[in-house]
Design a protein that fits this description.
Blueprint lengths: L10 H9 L1 H22 L9 H6 L1 H15 L8 H13 L6 H17 L5 H28 L6 E10 L4 E8 L13 E6 L8 E6 L9 E6 L11 H8 L6 E8 L12 E6 L3 H11 L5 E7 L16 E5 L4 H6 L4 E2 L4 H7 L5 E5 L2 H14 L6 E4 L8
Parallel strand pairs: 7-8, 7-11, 8-9, 9-10, 11-12
Antiparallel strand pairs: 1-2, 1-6, 2-5, 3-4, 3-6
């Protein structure tokens, strides 16, 4: 679906915004880093809605800088940013972002532009950006209004951990049922849920998104979570470690409704190629289990070795291929993999058809490699689909 956006900005305002594009290219990340710092100082309650790990490593400021830059480039026709806005809006709805949050963001974004650029901006530029921000915010608010109306529920709903299963050295699955009964939501294979974690010792709520790792139509929701490594200064694995070590069967987890625009197109007729790396297997496993009886499906999974290969018992069939970067002696003895090393284009050409719908998910390096390989092979853009959690990287 393409969102049509009719600009209400006059020509002078649009010209001013476009004139700032080179400045944003140079100083955008400094502006957005300062923006988050100032906003969180004055509104610490908003830390409950942001992934603070992404803040510490600079991913969120970088993503916002890229979004502001794209909006400035396309200010004559904001329809050009609508596809990206749709994806961001999915995550906003999953995080329960509301219209009243946008004025706060706008206030601190304008302050950051002024404070970082100083005399390089005048009142006319600030006024123009205030008007532009209002229009950009309205694009998101309108998209999100529609998505809220379509969502299975708003906010968070409690689910019981019915079962907890260790899938590998790093991945554990959680089988979830609605607290006090109730129906399970509809979702598309590939979508995710939001999880709200209040962890003892941490002052702010932690929000994370996890792909649903089983096919729709089961009597439960399932997420399969990798234990992420981190440090005291940068607790990258704060929520995953809490889930692995502290959350037990019978505990309650608040979930937001399934969301996400990365999902299987079940109306397609072409064969399906699923390419996963590490825990990126989770949304693709949902797709695989939904479609494997209906279409030709090729499942390519890459992992470091068999010890960390999650959900491997659920991979089957003559069109499933496993690649281990550094297979163990046990892997070699068991014949548990088809290729050592990496998924490369020369090999991929020999095992999957070119005329297919491709879906891929995994670590950032894996994603870049798959995207590059598929484009080098000449796969049409409309046949390439991927999921990348967190702010979009340079995939």
């Amino acid at each position: 679906m393409t969102t049509q956006v009719t600009s209400r900005l006059d020509e002078r305002t649009r010209d001013i915004i476009k004139s700032t594009v080179p400045v944003l290219a140079e100083h955008g990340e400094a502006i957005t880093t300062h923006f988050y710092k100032r906003m969180f100082e004055d509104h610490p309650e908003l830390k409950n809605m942001f992934n603070m790990t992404h803040q510490k490593v600079g991913k969120q400021p970088r993503a916002l800088a890229n979004a502001v830059y794209a909006a400035a480039q396309n200010i004559d026709d904001l329809s050009a940013i609508a596809p990206a806005a749709e994806t961001i809006a999915e995550k906003h709805v999953n995080l329960n972002i509301q219209p009243e949050h946008y004025p706060i963001v706008g206030e601190y974004l304008l302050k950051a532009i002024k404070e970082v650029l100083g005399d390089a901006v005048n009142d006319e530029i600030i006024t123009a950006w205030g008007e532009a921000y209002g229009e950009i915010a309205d694009v998101f608010i309108q998209i999100e209004k529609k998505k809220y109306a379509e969502s299975a529920w708003t906010g968070y709903r409690n689910f019981n951990v019915e079962k907890k299963v260790k899938e590998s050295e790093e991945i554990t699955s959680f089988y979830l049922l609605p607290e006090n009964g109730g129906s399970l939501p509809f979702y598309r294979p590939g979508q995710y849920i939001g999880l709200k974690a209040d962890i003892p010792g941490y002052p702010y709520t932690q929000l994370r998104q996890y792909s649903l790792s089983d096919a729709p139509g089961e009597e439960y929701l399932r997420i399969s979570v990798k234990r992420e490594s981190g440090t005291d200064e940068l607790p990258a694995g704060l929520v995953s470690t809490w889930l692995h070590d502290q959350v037990q069967e019978g505990d309650v987890l608040p979930l937001s409704a399934p969301a996400g625009d990365f999902y299987l197109d079940e109306s397609g007729k072409l064969p399906v190629v699923l390419l996963s790396g590490g825990v990126g297997v989770t949304p693709l496993m949902s797709m695989y289990k939904k479609i494997r009886e209906e279409r030709d499906v090729y499942f390519i999974h890459a992992a470091r070795n068999g010890g960390v290969h999650g959900l491997k018992e659920e991979m089957s069939g003559s069109r499933t291929y496993v690649i281990y970067e550094t297979p163990s002696e046990e892997d070699k003895t068991m014949g548990a993999f088809h290729k050592a090393g990496y998924v490369d284009l020369d090999w991929l050409r020999t095992v999957v058809p070119k005329e297919a719908d491709f879906y891929f998910c995994g670590p950032e390096g894996f994603m870049r490699a798959m995207n590059g390989s598929l484009h080098e092979w000449g796969i049409p853009e409309e046949n390439i689909n991927y999921e990348f959690f967190g702010p979009k990287g340079n995939i």
